[in-house]
User: Fold this.
Amino acid sequence: MTNSYDSFQKRRLRSSYASVIISIAIVLFMIGILGLILLKSTKVANHFKEEVVMSLFLKDEVTKDQINSFRESLVKESFTKELYFISKEEAAKTYSKDLGEDFLDFLGSNPLKNGIDLHLNADYVTPEQMQELEQKFLKNAYIIDVSYDKPLVEQLTKNIQRISFWLLVLSGFFAVVSIILINSSIRLSIYSKRFNIKTMQMVGATKNFIRKPFIWQSIRLGLIGALIALVILAFVIYYIDKYIPSLELTKDYLSLLYLASGILISSLIITWVSTYFATQRFLNLQTNELYY
Assistant:
């Protein structure tokens, strides 16, 4: 009879642990997917920002040596992603190709200017930053005019801010849901041991002494759940990268490291906090309240 009861208890305990691990793994996997979306959305947003071009038109009297010196100074600036020099002759050829006829034959001379197409780093592609740069460049002795698509920059900034806001809201919602689900699983697991907790307390064990093994057990279960979530997430990332290689998921080692670290740390924090408060609740109950 005793052996049968012990076997039943062990099976129930294993089932309880398995349900906690599965719950943690599923929740952390969803957090990982959301984290991946957040990380890649930032990269995608930066990609579009860095496609915006600020054109600097140079005065006719600026010499080649001065242009080269100016280009070298721009390359060293923190706002520069990359730049391309476009001579007035190249610009005329491109313009003629777009028109379908040689406008130089009609005008008799080339009215276009030598220019530099400047791609900025993503942090500088905002209406305020680009306006400051425009004013700075207009004060330069070599530059006669500055041109960029202001409505595009404003619209791009607004759209990115709007998308970022809703992604953060969604992240917050998933974080709350994940904490509630993991907390519920751990509470149910500890609920089944509430009599053991009270018995230990009645024989003189301190709260910290009683709480410690439960916390360590939950942390171990959390780590197992996190590792399962990471394995599944790795397969998902592999197949996404296989079918959508332009995202370069498997090559972005830093983002993947942040993601894996975030999942592991989340599992540790959530399981520790949930177990602490769950055991605290049963430690504070009276013996007759354990049956309700």
About this structure: The chain is about 70% helix and 10% strand. The radius of gyration is 31 Å. The mean pLDDT is 79. The first strand starts at residue 53 and ends at 58.
